[in-house]
Automatic annotation (TrEMBL):
<protein>
    <recommendedName>
        <fullName>Alpha-1,4 glucan phosphorylase</fullName>
        <ecNumber>2.4.1.1</ecNumber>
    </recommendedName>
</protein>
<keyword id="KW-0119">Carbohydrate metabolism</keyword>
<dbReference type="Pfam" id="PF00343">
    <property type="entry name" value="Phosphorylase"/>
</dbReference>
<dbReference type="InterPro" id="IPR011833">
    <property type="entry name" value="Glycg_phsphrylas"/>
</dbReference>
<keyword id="KW-0663">Pyridoxal phosphate</keyword>
<comment type="function">
    <text>Phosphorylase is an important allosteric enzyme in carbohydrate metabolism. Enzymes from different sources differ in their regulatory mechanisms and in their natural substrates. However, all known phosphorylases share catalytic and structural properties.</text>
</comment>
<comment type="similarity">
    <text>Belongs to the glycogen phosphorylase family.</text>
</comment>
<comment type="function">
    <text>Allosteric enzyme that catalyzes the rate-limiting step in glycogen catabolism, the phosphorolytic cleavage of glycogen to produce glucose-1-phosphate, and plays a central role in maintaining cellular and organismal glucose homeostasis.</text>
</comment>
<keyword id="KW-0808">Transferase</keyword>
<dbReference type="InterPro" id="IPR035090">
    <property type="entry name" value="Pyridoxal_P_attach_site"/>
</dbReference>
<keyword id="KW-0328">Glycosyltransferase</keyword>
<dbReference type="InterPro" id="IPR000811">
    <property type="entry name" value="Glyco_trans_35"/>
</dbReference>
């Protein structure tokens, strides 16, 4: 037993209470009689952290002997959500903590509510990274998630007069008890300057990079516990600091401004997360951020492996490095630089190591999201990397010429450099060339990748490509978020389901048991009551828990088509106005999601939702029939209240646009039925839960391409469909938001361009919504479908995704270490 461990990490309620009080007094310097709820949170967090740390330390020791190859997940974004409740769940300490605090008259829920979540990501990609760390720890794989410790994460969203207003996120202001600063893991990262050829001691020519600037990277570690597991994952985030606090030369000459300039510039690197997703802009600071954390991560891995006594040329045996999209794709050139320039490997040897180490996950087909950096910008910031990229490209294009002689167009398409106009470095091409494996995030997406964006790479290296369908952690998104359902599942399927989600199948035989069905409905209704209370608190809107909760929560994006959902809402409204007796079941439409601050149309879509909300909720004619809510500040914490209360999950993106989606999985897993297109993982969800338990509509990806190719004319749809005409005219009429001009840009966009084919899918969507209403009016049939959704979603646990990665991509054996 580790000395001292029993005092701080005892697992009885009395131990926990004592440790909690000790932390309150000794670590925080607070008298119990004067402590606030936030103090209680910090004290409990420190207490729980001790438990997690103890496991972490032991698992790292063990890892050295049991698992040679570790996984490094490089991601510019992580969205872990609040830690405390999740750790308690993973450690099996929730009840104990509740009891320990209860003995002091403290309410655990109130303590949990104090935590500020780290919003270090935009949406799906960042949340996926956090689900994967959770699963890596749970299935027992040694891993590190490398990223950036943004001082300001994604903005908090408030709604003022119906508009999104961004408020700075200050997640570190109350202190962050989860992270541990690692002075021993500091790294230096160079920028700018020039390169020189020098002769080393052995008489070999080497390239020496003389930088203009050096920045310090400081490591902050956050342990990520696994469910019922002795393994801990590590989230290691880098904070940038100036190497010297001041430029003393400038300072001594009285040039104070210039003296602090450098310090400020260095610290700016990890200052703020860019709030755009799916839109690449060539912002230099973003490239600096990407290189900064990627370089810190790779240097750190080399350091760790040298501590293990392993030479640089066996890097690939020690590390499997996953690139979460192209954001860390500069890793290809950086690893080459470190191996060739710093560790003196020959080019070819270094290239073999690099290619055996790295793998690349693509998360998007949208052309506007593909990262390309102007050659001049990249060369100015990273002169040595540009040289390396050119050299990689030269070797690569030779290979292409050999495979496809005389095909210059193919050469131009494959090249790492886009030379069609201004010259750009294509990061997806760089990632493909430097990787062992390339994967998409759902079957359809991986297929479309091979057919479109990466078609030439797929022709060259068909075996490099694979699919790993995304997954979500059932710990946070079922057990923690939906304890009522969790209890029912445990009672019916046994207690192992959170770590073995296929066990959910065991509830299927109970589908036709009336008692089970009524318990199922009771759980859902209770979740809806809780959400209704939260909605009232946050928006002042009263909603009926018995109504159908129709939910669309995700980033606001045209391709995700929140405005298609709104067309349906308004069509229903107009129908109810015309025909007050219409047989339409009561519905509550719930929207949530942030818009990128500079995304004009996305902000108008939010405004349309809030305008619909104002109009409909205050119209007595439709009282008790439909309500519309825009739930402000959709984040991980709020998601945990919303998913469990969803009856209907809106997954209505235009087919071929959503790489996977993961909210679709979270809602179906919590018993929602999906209305959706054949897009992303919807396709696989529908296969899993059964077509009869899924409301399908819309064009498929092939039909989308054909329609666009044939010259799509949205105005024809408008002209020929009276219902569509009525609702579009209504939006443009000024009846919503009280201003005729307000939604003109949206209306004009739909009538003249409609790039995401809303008008083409409108009718199919209405029909599918009609089927939703009909099924809802048969509660037994609805409940049956709801149960089957949960029962058959086991495949979508992120544990399965991680096992797939281990097998298909990382070549890591899973030796589950049971406690
Ligand atoms: C280039 C930069 C501006 C950028 C920043 C963030 C580009 C993209 C992103 C984030 C993308 C993202 O979240 N993609 C989503 O990844 C999920 C996980 O794989 C998918 O489920 C989802 O379909 C996809 O949109």
């Amino acid at each position: 037993k580790t000395p001292g461990a029993s005092i701080r990490t005892g697992t009885g309620a009395d131990d926990l209470r004592q440790a909690f009080l000790d932390n309150l007094v000794c670590a925080l310097g607070r008298l119990p009689s004067h402590a606030t709820s936030h103090d209680h949170y910090l004290a409990l967090a420190l207490t729980v952290r001790d438990h997690v740390m103890e496991r972490g330390v032991k698992s790292f020791e063990r890892g050295d002997t049991q698992q040679i190859r570790r996984v490094a997940y490089l991601s510019a974004e992580f969205l872990p959500g609040p830690h405390l409740g999740n750790h308690l769940l993973n450690l099996g300490l929730t009840g104990t903590a509740d009891k320990a605090l209860d003995g002091l008259g403290i309410d655990l829920d109130q303590v949990l509510a104090q935590e500020q979540e780290p919003g270090l990501g935009n949406g799906g990609l960042g949340r996926l990274a956090s689900c994967y760390l959770d699963s890596l720890a749970t299935v027992g794989v040694q891993s590190v998630g490398y990223g950036i410790r943004y001082e300001f994460g994604i903005f908090d969203q408030t709604i003022r007069d119906g508009w999104q207003v961004e408020v700075t996120d200050k997640w570190l202001h109350g202190g962050n008890p989860w992270e541990v600063y690692r002075p021993g893991a500091v790294q230096e990262v160079k920028f700018g300057g020039h390169t020189e050829v020098v002769t080393d001691a052995a008489g070999r020519s080497r390239v020496h990079w003389v930088p203009a600037i050096v920045v310090r990277g400081e490591a902050y570690d956050t342990p990520i516990s696994g469910f019922d597991s002795d393994t801990c994952a590590l989230m290691r985030l880098w904070k940038s600091e100036a190497v010297e606090s001041f430029d003393f030369e400038a300072f001594n000459h009285g040039d104070y401004d210039r003296a602090v300039e450098q310090k400020v510039a260095s610290e700016n690197l990890s200052k703020v997360l860019y709030p755009n997703d799916e839109l690449h802009r060539g912002k230099e600071l973003r490239l600096k951020q990407q290189y900064f954390f990627t370089s810190c991560a790779l240097q750190d891995m080399l350091r760790i492996q040298s501590l293990r006594g392993s030479p640089p040329d066996s890097f690939h045996r020690n590390w499997a490095v996953q690139l979460n999209d192209t954001h860390p794709a500069i890793a290809v050139a950086e690893l080459m630089r470190l191996l060739v320039d710093v560790h003196a490997l020959e080019w070819d040897a270094a290239w073999s190591v690099t290619r055996a180490t790295l793998s690349y996950t693509n998360h998007t087909l949208l052309p506007e999201a593909l990262e390309r950096w102007p050659v001049d910008m990249l060369g100015g910031l990273l002169p040595r990397h540009l040289e390396i990229i050119y050299e990689i490209n030269a070797h690569f294009l030779d290979e292409v010429r050999a495979a496809f002689p005389g095909d210059d167009e193919r050469l131009a398409r494959l090249s790492l450099i886009d030379e069609s106009g201004l010259r750009y470095v294509r990061m997806a091409n760089l990632a493909c060339v430097g990787s062992q494996t390339v994967n998409g995030v759902a079957e359809l997406h991986s297929e479309l990748l091979r057919q479109t964006v990466l078609v030439d790479f797929a022709a060259l290296w068909p075996d490099k490509f694979t699919n790993v369908t995304n997954g979500v952690t059932p710990r946070r998104f079922v057990a923690l978020a939906n304890p009522g359902l969790g209890k029912l599942l445990t009672k019916t399927a046994g207690k192992s389901w959170p770590g073995d989600l296929d066990k959910l199948r065991k509830i299927e035989p109970h589908t036709d048991d009336p008692r089970f069905r009524s318990e199922w409905r009771e759980v859902k209704l209770s979740n809806k009551r809780q959400l209704a209370a939260l909605i009232a608190e946050r928006t002042g809107i009263e909603v009926a828990p018995e109504s159908l909760f129709d939910v669309q929560v995700k980033r606001i994006h045209e391709y995700k088509r929140q405005h298609l959902n709104l067309l349906h809402v308004l069509t229903l409204y107009l129908r109810l106005k015309r025909d007050p007796k219409a047989d339409i079941p009561a519905r509550t439409f719930i929207f949530g999601g942030k818009a990128a601050p500079g995304y004009f149309l996305a902000k108008r879509i939010i405004r349309l939702a809030t305008a619909a909300s104002d109009l409909i909720n205050n119209d007595r004619d439709v009282a008790g029939r439909i309500k519309v809510v825009f739930f402000p500040d959709f984040n991980v914490r709020n998601a945990q209240s919303i998913y469990p209360a969803a009856d209907l999950s809106e997954q209505v993106s235009l087919a071929g646009m959503e790489a996977s989606g993961t909210g679709n999985m979270k809602m179906s897993l919590n018993g929602a039925l999906t209305i959706g297109t054949l897009d992303g993982a919807n396709v696989e969800i529908r296969e899993a839960v059964g077509a009869e338990n899924f409301f399908l509509f819309g064009l498929n990806a092939g039909e989308v391409v054909a329609l666009k190719r044939g010259g799509y004319r949205p105005r024809d749809r408008y002209d020929s469909d009276p219902l569509l005409r009525e609702v579009i005219d209504f939006i443009g009429s000024g009846a919503l938001g009280g201003d005729v001009d307000l939604f003109q840009p949206l209306v004009a966009n739909l009538l003249d361009h409609d790039p995401y084919l809303l008008l083409a899918d409108y009718r199919g969507y209405l029909n599918a919504q009609q089927r939703v209403s009909e099924l809802w009016m048969d509660p037994e049939a609805w409940t049956r479908a709801s149960i089957l959704n949960t029962a058959r979603m086991g495949r979508f646990s992120s544990d399965r995704s991680i096992r797939d990665y281990c097998q298909r991509v990382w070549n890591v054996n899973i030796k589950k270490q049971k406690k």
